[in-house]
Amino acid sequence: MRRTCGGADLRQWAELVLPWLPPPDLAAAASTCKALSRVAKSVSSRRASDAARGLERHPIPFLDPTGDGQPYSYFLYTRFPVLALSSPAPSAQPWGGDSDKNRILDASSLAVFASPITGSGAGCGCNACAPLAVGDYGRCPCSSPKMGSFSSSNAGNGTDLMTECGTNCSCGVECVNRLTQRGVSVKLRIVKDRNKGWGLHAAQFIHRGQFVCEYAGEFLTTEEARTRQRTYDELACGGGLHPALLVVREHLPSGKACLRVNIDATKVGNIARFVNHSCDGGNLSTVLVRNSGSLLPRLCFFAAKDVVDGEELTFGYGVADPTKQGRPCFCGSSCCVGRLPSEET
Description:
- With 345 residues, the protein is α/β, with parallel strands linked by helices.
- The chain has helices at residues 8-17, 23-30, 34-49, 99-102, 222-237, and strands at residues 62-63, 76-77, 82-83, 149-151, 161-164, 188-193, 197-202, 211-214, 218-220, 245-251, 257-264, 268-269, 276-277, 284-291, 298-303, 314-315.
- It is globular and about 65 Å long.
- It comes from Musa troglodytarum.
- Residues 186-318 form the SET domain.
- One of its GO terms (cellular component) is chromosome.
């Protein structure tokens, strides 16, 4: 029988502490008494209302039409990539507290992306970079695109490489050549499917070519990525984990791989971790974005076509081999091969 406990001091303490707890600990606290149960229920409701923890322009809610009792997916939120080895991920992060205290109120408070690894310190001296026009990349030296391609087991094949201003440039966050550095600006929601699990859906009309979000997570060395992938494969077999480790290989014009980038959003990431695979390539295009002065590129998603409100956002993880063992694919496209791409493909 659940005992009764109360008092303003206990509730105040609970409002401060419970938002830091992962779901198992939150459930344990809720089982101790009615007062903590009420606070825990409120925390869960707030978490379900915004996966981004108030760190993006718009709340990104979880919706579960399956009714399986899991109101949200727990992970640590980062708006931009982090370097795992030099900046260890925090073990906890407040989520589900007083949303009014955490909410970003205007664009001026959005931080400019700072790459964890920088190069020569190059950057433009533009106070206001020239607007881009068709066939003209402006007067800013950072805005010139570099043609190339990349492929991976988790990212589509072939794209242009895009460059933007970086931390050593004179322009500010509203610069036209910092399009992908202001976080998620479109309205999105995370919806659960009985077969695919959570998926990212549009909550507004998104025009073709419009920036949607980047794939944020931990930058890993290849050795660490392979170690984690082996662990994830073991856990995924039991149905207890849905890994979000993405591997990108940037290619030279000759086709020889010259750079491998590993981004793990399994434990630390943003809402892009919920973008599901589609064997037909999906409705999102993937673009490698380099910031001037940074060595590591960022993977960003743009709408490959007009996307209507309520449509699921998907992209092609890569090419799957249906003859090999792997996780089943439920994309539902006419060209579905029945298996998700994996690192072995």
